[in-house]
Design goal:
four-stranded antiparallel beta sheet, 5 helices
Length: 179
Amino acid sequence: MRAFGVALLIATIAVSPAARAGTAKKAAATKPQRLSNASPSADGLIHRFVEALDKQDAATLRHLRVTESEYRSIILPGSVPPGAPRRHYRDDVTEYFWGTMNGKSAGYEKNLLDTVGGHGPSKVKTISYAKGEQQYADYKAYKQLRLVVENGAGREVDIRTGSIAEIDGQYKFISFIRD
């Protein structure tokens, strides 16, 4: 029995730095990160969104959405009730979810640019969220943005698009998919 205890102590000492490194990586992976190119308010994000449409600026419009890394490391695993453990998915599953959502959002970005873009400057008249707000473990979602804007020709335009995430006082679109 004593030999087993000594062997266990040696194994613990030998593995300890690796175990600590693994624990540190796991802790870092569960902590929500900062968003890149985010806005400090939902109104600021919406202003940037409308401005990108007015200028038919596809690159800016695309940067208003979460990145693949942000989606796979924050949005997807953190879409659970507050206090619940984060979800863990296999890489192929997160790749599939990202690919589907990103592809549909890219198609809708083009649709937005083609149908309401280039008629600015636009003025936002009303802002609402068709599916309300919901708090998740890692973020708050403002679901299904609905805007009424007055475009440069004085015509009111109804814009229906996807949801916005708020993470630590930062705002980005999750997607432009509307349902």
